[in-house]
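tl;dr need the bound structure. longer version: we got a ligand (guanosine-5'-diphosphate) that a collaborator sent over and nobodys looked at where it sits. i said id run it. heres the input, straight from their email, havent touched it
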Amino acid sequence: MEDTIVAMATAMGETSIHVLRLSGSNAETIIGECFVPQNMERWSRRDNYTLNLGVFRDESRVLDEVLIGRMLAPSSYTGEDVYEINCHGGTFVAQRILQACIRHGAQLAEPGEFSKRAFLNGKMDLVQAEAVIDLISSRTETSSNLALTQLRGGLSESIVSLRERVLEILAFIEAGIDFPEDDVETLDRETLSMRVNMALEDTGQLLAGSKTGKILRDGLLTVIVGRPNVGKSSLLNALLNEERAIVTDIPGTTRDEIRESVSVGGILLKLVDTAGICESKDLVERIGIERTWRALQTAELILLVVDANLALTKDEIYILNNYKDKVIVIVNKIDLLENERVFLEFNEIKWIPFSVLQHQGFEDLEVEIKRKVFQGEVVLASDPLISNVRQISSLERCDNALKQALESIKLGMPWDILSIDLREALQYVSEITGHNVQESLLEDIFSRFCIGK
Ligand code: GDP
């Protein structure tokens, strides 16, 4: 008999209610031993998706009055019989119920074990499972929409169809190995390259969207630079006040480097602390300073704040010339301008006339950030974008294997060599959804979940 698992699904502490989750073939027996429903007749009908009031007891002691949700196999999150016990929100009460379940035969669940069972029972693939983590940890509307699209299978569909394409090519090659007649060979090779090219179009499209997907999920590492007094702090404070979705704690990033995070137009800007970056008179000389250099180098977005009333400095020109791909220039204090001034846009860098004080320019900044992120294309978080580093890396490997196959076809390599390239492509695309994965990878993925999920 497989293990029945139990865990608190809510965070420890005093709250209004706690929820415990029980899943496995023995769940019904355990609940049967501990739960006394108020409406026995209805409970005995075993109606699926019902909430049932009653008392939870261990031996003869009543532990709490509870509401139990019943979701029977296979129509549950894990695909097994699942019971969700809603009890009163004291940690003590919940712990006693948890212990009672364990005494009656359940095992304490590992982190992510419910989701792992859902995966193993075919309720969702790995892309969807990883979307569950992303949804829980998402901090902006766009990143949660993206995770939701992935959870609902939007992305999985694209990956599955790519996988089918690769499988078809592989079948075609295997047929070629079986019937290697010379005159058929030439024609077949043409068809073959055409098919591989079609698969490459798919990987190319998915990879093109992955940059945006990753930004929507993880945010943009952003540096605000400018000479002293130009309005950097004012801008930062204005952005922070402006947006409700302020985030301070970002996993996976060095804490002391990230000063603040703010969502602008649904895109998370992770502001890197570069205090003092332009405090020196001569940045060009100071650029040797490791930290400053690194901040500008590693930034994905640089907001260069300049003063509308002053000529550009050497430092500012240096930044404009060296980081043109990721700079947005904020020409601040336009409210102080005496005459209309035209800001020449050079190096294809966007200059935004701005006045933090008079609240001008914020909309343009938002539009420009979005334009940079979406590279001029209209991409919605509801599009099936690949965003997770593991998935992107497998897709890149699949793409490389397909390119290698194309090369081998051109070089007239024998069919069995082509088959090796295609098998490799198949392996990588299968890894994404979990059609073919190693146990260690599964452990790694599901250990990132919280307990009870
Ligand atoms: P920082 O040194 O770059 O961080 O600059 P601050 O944000 O501390 O701003 C320096 C001064 O400029 C403050 O007195 C601000 O009130 C003022 N300031 C900031 N933005 C504007 C603006 O758009 N217009 C005007 N007139 N003053 C501004």
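gonna send this back to them w/ a short note. The mean pLDDT is 83.
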